[in-house]
Amino acid sequence: MDLKVLESFPPAEVPNGVIPATGAVKDSSGELVGELLLWVSDGRLSALEYSWYTDEAPTALPDPGDVTVAVQHS
After folding, report:
1. Which of 14, 39, 43, 55 has a CA between 20 and 30 Å from the CA of residue 28?
2. Three state DSSP letters for the chain
3. By CB neighbour count within 10 A (0-12 exposed, 13-18 middle, 19+ buried), where does 25 fall?
4. What does the pLDDT look like over 14-26, one tens digit per residue?
5. What pLDDT shows up at residue 9?
């Protein structure tokens, strides 16, 4: 999903690419079924990517309660 942030907000001082955090998506049984990634371009959020690990593509974004965010420290 492409995103567009209003230019009236100042850009963040972060490098282009995927932010260093992952949103692990688990199903109701606790099995890992995918992940959410946030992309940045020119200091602004530019895309949300939902990668799934199942055979069938999801038809909607996951419920927020099914997502666990982990920050990757450098």
Report:
1. 39
2. CECCCCCCCCCCCCCCEECCEEEEEECCCCCEEEEEEEEEECCEEEEEEEEECCCCCCCCCCCHHHEEEEECCC
3. buried
4. 899 999 898 999 9
5. 84
- The rounded distance, in Å, linking the Cα atoms of 53 and 46 is 23
Rounded-to-integer distance, Cα 62 and Cα 44, Å: 23
The answer to whether the beta carbons of residues 46 and 13 sit under 8 Å apart is no
Sign of CA dihedral 73, 26, 45, 17: positive
Residue 43's φ and ψ, nearest 5 degrees, are 80, 10
pTM over 0.85: no
Q: Would you state the structure tokens that stand for residue 5, as one six-digit string?
A: 């942030």
Give residue for tokens 């907000």. Answer: 9
